[in-house]
Amino acid sequence: MAEESDLEKTEPASPRRIEQAREEGQVPQSRELSTFFITMTGVATLWLLGDWMADRLFGLLRRSFAFEREMAFDHVLMLDGFNTLLSGALLTMMPLFLTLLVAAVASPIALGGLVFSPKALGPNFGRMNPLQGLARMFSVHGLAEMVKAILKSLLVGGVSAIVLWVNKDHLFDLMVEPLEVGMPDFADTVAFAALMITTSLGLLALMDVPFQLWQYHKKLRMTKEEVKREGKEQEGDPQVKGRIRAMQREMARRRMMSEVPKADVVVTNPTHFSVALKYDASRMAAPIVVAKGRGDLALKIREIARENKVAMLEAPPLARALYAHCELEQAVPATLFTAVAEVMAYVYQLNNWVAEGGLPPQPPAELPVPEGLDPGAPEE
């Protein structure tokens, strides 16, 4: 039962899942909202610019009935006249075309936002499969679309019938009115009917938009397993991250060990801590820590130092202080300068003794480590 519940899509879509769907061109869409936007825009444009457009079109119509004798014998003049009338008609209708185009583009953006997906433009041969087409027709979505189409037909037809029934006497009166009076009166009646039909389409859009949003988010629902997998992908698999950290630590350890042969001295404690120091007066303002470790790592540092004949000095308080307060590739703190300076002086004396012979230098005793810097010092 637990496995079945993990496979059921019961979890809401994550932001990443929604973003992936948008990249594939999947956004909520409502045909009813688009129809309402376009219809309302067309009605509003005709309401505002209808008189101007009608006057220009009537003027073009009158010009089209005017026939000059020269045009009958010259097809060039006839074509020029036709082009003039056609361009005039197109320019007159251009405001309507432009507003409808803007409405057609703005209606999907209002619901799903602005999305450009190259994937959605690619061919989808699966949609050409007749079996899938039949499956979509008889699916829940197809049934819902059929119900909406029937409801739209009933709503628009019902509103139209009501408008015609209410204005039936007025429509009959138009037949006896003069043309100059009847045409504007008829235009007002048509505009009122269009407004009522558009309003009914708006009510249908108000019902369709929540349904489309619900269906869109239902389609993008995820199983619990998908949510877990996505969380791992975003945060990183703990096992993979652990292996990466282990590899990084190993690489850092190897890099640190490669610096031990270049060190001037290794300060030890004598078994728990080891800190390798290097100093180049021409390039460094103070000695730097090139390697440090405790436990097995400290033993490994001492082993490499012995193999490469690097000087070692047993100074437990200083070793503990350097390990606790110094970072790799960083200079020793000023509070430990005095103690480290004595160590470096001993190293130089030791190198001279190895090169020239004589009496071996005595290692420094009781190096001055300020109080509070040695984490292993006994409490008073």
TrEMBL record:
<keyword id="KW-0653">Protein transport</keyword>
<keyword id="KW-1005">Bacterial flagellum biogenesis</keyword>
<keyword id="KW-0813">Transport</keyword>
<keyword id="KW-0969">Cilium</keyword>
<keyword id="KW-1133">Transmembrane helix</keyword>
<dbReference type="InterPro" id="IPR006135">
    <property type="entry name" value="T3SS_substrate_exporter"/>
</dbReference>
<dbReference type="GO" id="GO:0044780">
    <property type="term" value="P:bacterial-type flagellum assembly"/>
</dbReference>
<feature type="region of interest" description="Disordered">
    <location>
        <begin position="360"/>
        <end position="380"/>
    </location>
</feature>
<keyword id="KW-1006">Bacterial flagellum protein export</keyword>
<comment type="similarity">
    <text>Belongs to the type III secretion exporter family.</text>
</comment>
<dbReference type="Pfam" id="PF01312">
    <property type="entry name" value="Bac_export_2"/>
</dbReference>
<feature type="region of interest" description="Disordered">
    <location>
        <begin position="1"/>
        <end position="27"/>
    </location>
</feature>
<keyword id="KW-1003">Cell membrane</keyword>
<dbReference type="InterPro" id="IPR029025">
    <property type="entry name" value="T3SS_substrate_exporter_C"/>
</dbReference>
<keyword id="KW-0812">Transmembrane</keyword>
<comment type="function">
    <text>Required for formation of the rod structure in the basal body of the flagellar apparatus. Together with FliI and FliH, may constitute the export apparatus of flagellin.</text>
</comment>
<feature type="transmembrane region" description="Helical">
    <location>
        <begin position="33"/>
        <end position="50"/>
    </location>
</feature>
<keyword id="KW-0966">Cell projection</keyword>
<feature type="compositionally biased region" description="Basic and acidic residues">
    <location>
        <begin position="7"/>
        <end position="25"/>
    </location>
</feature>
<keyword id="KW-0472">Membrane</keyword>
<dbReference type="GO" id="GO:0005886">
    <property type="term" value="C:plasma membrane"/>
</dbReference>
<feature type="transmembrane region" description="Helical">
    <location>
        <begin position="96"/>
        <end position="117"/>
    </location>
</feature>
<keyword id="KW-0282">Flagellum</keyword>
<feature type="transmembrane region" description="Helical">
    <location>
        <begin position="186"/>
        <end position="211"/>
    </location>
</feature>
<dbReference type="InterPro" id="IPR006136">
    <property type="entry name" value="FlhB"/>
</dbReference>
<feature type="transmembrane region" description="Helical">
    <location>
        <begin position="146"/>
        <end position="166"/>
    </location>
</feature>
<protein>
    <recommendedName>
        <fullName>Flagellar biosynthetic protein FlhB</fullName>
    </recommendedName>
</protein>
<dbReference type="GO" id="GO:0009306">
    <property type="term" value="P:protein secretion"/>
</dbReference>
